Amino acid sequence: xxxxxxxxxxxxxxxxxxxxxxxxxxxxxxxxxxxxxxxxxxxxxxxxxxxxxxxxxxxxxxxxxxxxxxxxxxxxxxxxxxxxxxxxxxxxxxxxxxxxxxxxxxxxxxxxxxxxxxxxxxxxxxxxxxxxxxxxxxxxxxxxxxxxxxxxxxxxxxxxxxxxxxxxxxxx
Length: 172
Prior knowledge:
The chain is mainly alpha-helical.
């Protein structure tokens, strides 16, 4: 695959980082206080916009850790993982074009939250809250943001595309 085709999906990385940071900046500028309820979007308790901060990772894992350990685990480790992912992305020809786009989305989401962890000492800005009606024991899914949703959606698409391509290879 030529370098131009490899580089093009990084436009998605840039778009994800921009959408994530702009949406977070909007929330923080309009509703600066943490735990501010902003809106019940549909008026039926399904989707809320609410400003919360997360000093940990998904599901507030690691929230009670000392600051130095959190910095190591939540800044340095993700930076290394993103770096390794970028190097692998650039050097390998194993990814299909679709897989390159979803990996670029994962990188964008990772960078979006990493920016918050470095420059927002109050924590990562989360603002999307969804009612999941008791699914997995949650009344509401833990509050998330654009970067989180991009990592999850692109991660699922990557796994599905790898499973689908593995199944296709077996048939051949």
